[in-house]
Structure prediction request, 451 residues.
Amino acid sequence: MRLVVIGGSDAGISAALRARELDPASNVRLIVADSFPNFSICGIPFYLSGEVSDWRSLAHRTRHELEAAGVELYLQQRAVEIDTPRRCVRVQSGAGVDHVPYDRLVIATGAEPVRPPIPGIELPNVFVLHTMDECLALHQRLQEAASSAVIVGAGYIGLEMADALRHRGMAVTLIDQLPAVMRTVDRSIAVRVESLLRKHGVVVRTGTAVRSIARAGSGGMRVRCTDDYAAHGAIVLVAVGVRPQSDLARSCGVATNERGAIIVDREMRTNVPDVFAAGDCVVTWHRLLHRDLYLPLGTTSHKQGRVAGENAVGGDRVFAGSLGTQSVKIFDRVVAATGLREEDASLYGFTPLAVEVTTYDHKVYYPGATEMTVRLVGDMRTGGLLGGQMIGHYGREVSKRIDTLATALHHRMSVDDLNELDLSYTPPLSSPWDPVQVAAQAWATAHKERQ
Prediction:
């Protein structure tokens, strides 16, 4: 079996390693456009903040470890054409053009950052952070005594980079055209996040779009907005989202949806025989909605890649689906979410009821108890759990508690079922009724009052 995998990030690596694990006799070749296979792109903000001192530690596995697992690496070689009739991939490198034959192919080309049509976005000192090369270039600029930054986009990357650059002592301005930061949570949680940012010295401007970026005096940059607001910084970071990198796949007849994401079934097969795809370039089956969405997440990419690699060597594994579960550390807080927001639930035909409670992460009499806010969304018609969001102090198990909700959603539990879970308790860590269960009881009370 000759398996070729295009892409050396989460999905591609997972596919290659799973294939070798199940079929040690398979010949697995991994085509990587840069020199950084299996690097944690999610770890970039923590290297740029200085919390992670060596960029090399961002590698999940070294090149030697991948090769020892039997994966043949084609580094700094870009796949430029997939010839499906001849079953080969044309790759281009500094040494010229080569043709790599395959019996089965996995496309894991990932996503690329959205580059909005803002005049000045191509100027020096304007960064669109997504690859290790871009990371190292920005790190070099930060080492040159950059003292201030303007971040365009208040999603996960924008928020993490605001934290990272403030950690370095830089002045940070955060701009987003939406009315609130962090579009993946309901407004009430977003308001808390915005307050947290301001508390830590970040200037936040929402409800305004960037009109232009231009050079200013003394080597700085000026960012003008549609409301005539102007922000200044030594650097500008544009982080307004990503889109699937699917041009290569589409050029060989692989079908994509209206957003450009590769259409796959739950076995990660495309419409082209013997061609699989996985990761941030493909659609994702949403476990709650029973439909395909575009949900680019590292955890999802790992799972999809594993399914693609297994099936490429003869398996029959089915991708179980995603709930969009995420968590992010912002200064001394963690914000986490899973499932549907209240607004999304309405759009998809549910009758949502959302309840928000603030309680303590553990028994108050034990020192160090801190407040944690839990927001639950359930369906008024069925009582089924639809989603949840949380914000609490870092180190207080916020992400693990959102995982409780993600597990409940995975198994289609009702809100009331949460109260039956046998969750652990000791006064320094929780209460007899965990915050998740306190929120579930508040939801049940509100639901009864609405009936």
Observations:
- The two ends are 60 Å apart (CA to CA).
